[in-house]
Structure formats: structure tokens, C-alpha cells
């Protein structure tokens, strides 16, 4: 019986540690995502363009509107790189959120 209680205690501690790790991962991913948004906005602020083009689909809605309102470049290799970066950040945040959900 004491072995079973000790085993349950260890499992609970491991679960708590996993939850803390997941929370830290989610927080780091969110912070990285915010930092990425700022970097991309600053980058595009320099690349203003008169060219017409589709606003990157993967950019969060408020940022799509902001970029469009500012007349900032909306097509080309830089946009594709930004889309890829946003996609990777979104995957990281989703994974962190799933991990957090599993351990809470």
C-alpha cells in the first residue's frame, strides 16, 4: 500500500513538472511570436511598396489590416519568408497549448 501511495505521489509530481514545462514552453512561444510580429512589422515598414498583391494569408488579421493600411509590401520573397516564420510560430504555439491542455 505504501508503495502504491509513493508511486501515485511520484506520478503526481511528474505531472506537475510536465505542466510547468508546458506552461513555460507556451509562454516562450507566445513571447517569441510577439517578438516576431514586431520584427516583421519593422521590416515591412522599411519595404513600403506601391505594388498590388495579396496580403499574406498567414498573418494574423489585425496585422494584415495594419500592413494593408500602411501600404506596406504585400508580395515577394520577403513575404513568403514571413509567412513561413508565422506558420512555424503557429505550430510551436499549438504544440505548447496541446501539451499544456494534456497536463492540466
Structure in words:
With 104 residues, this protein is mainly α. The chain has one domain (2-102). Helices cover 77% and strands 0% of the residues. The protein is built from three helices and no strands. It has helices at 2-46, 61-69, 77-102. Helix 1 packs antiparallel against helix 3. The longest helix has 45 residues, at 2-46. The protein is rod-shaped and about 65 Å long.
Secondary structure: helix percent: over 70%
Assign the structural class, choosing from mainly alpha, mainly beta, alpha/beta, alpha+beta, or little secondary structure.
mainly alpha
Kindly give the count of domains: 1
Task: Evaluate the radius of gyration.
Answer: 20 Å
Order of helices and strands: HHH
The stretches of 5 or more residues where confidence is low (pLDDT under 50) are 45-58
Instruction: Summarize the biggest pleated sheet.
Output: none
How many strand elements? 0
Count up the helices: 3
Q: Beta-strand level of the residues, as a percent range? A: under 5%
Average pLDDT: 63
Shape: rod-shaped
- The end-to-end span amounts to 27 Å
SSE topology sketch:
Blueprint lengths: L1 H45 L14 H9 L7 H26 L2
Task: Provide tags for this entry.
104 residues, 3 helices
Summarize this structure briefly.
This protein is 77% helix and 0% strand. The chain is built from 3 helices and no strands.
